[in-house]
Design brief:
mainly beta, 0% helix, globular, 121 residues, single chain
């Protein structure tokens, strides 16, 4: 399994970013794909997940209405469009093969290396 995130950057509050995660090594379309994040000094937090069917997207309450998760099965890529970013969105964003286990304290081989998002003026 290989997951490579990109698109993280420094952005001002209210701005937008689009994260990408290129996947390989597993049948992409058959697995749930998840975005998780880790704010400085805090634990891992689930952000959003997408399954294989239409309307299968689910979001954490903190990002619902601002973030959109999508996938391109032909490109083995999952995206996270982030709009109206806030300072509390700052952190490292990870792409995960499968779901998110509440209370996770460390990354596994089903996680990417992460991409840094910093929201600051």
């Amino acid at each position: 399994v290989q997951l490579v995130e990109s698109g993280g950057d420094l952005v001002q509050p209210g701005g937008s970013l689009r994260l990408s995660c290129k996947a390989s090594g597993f049948p992409f379309s058959t697995f749930v794909k998840t975005w998780a994040r880790q704010a400085p000094g805090k634990g891992f937090e689930w952000v959003a997940s997408i399954g294989g069917g239409i309307g299968s997207e689910v979001y954490a309450a903190s990002v619902r209405g601002r973030f959109t998760i999508s996938r391109d099965n032909a490109e083995n890529t999952v995206y996270l469009q982030m709009n109206n970013l806030k300072s509390e969105d700052t952190g490292v964003y990870f792409c995960v093969k499968g779901g998110f286990r509440v209370g996770t304290t460390s990354r596994t081989s089903d996680w990417g290396q992460g991409t840094q998002v910093t929201v600051s003026s």
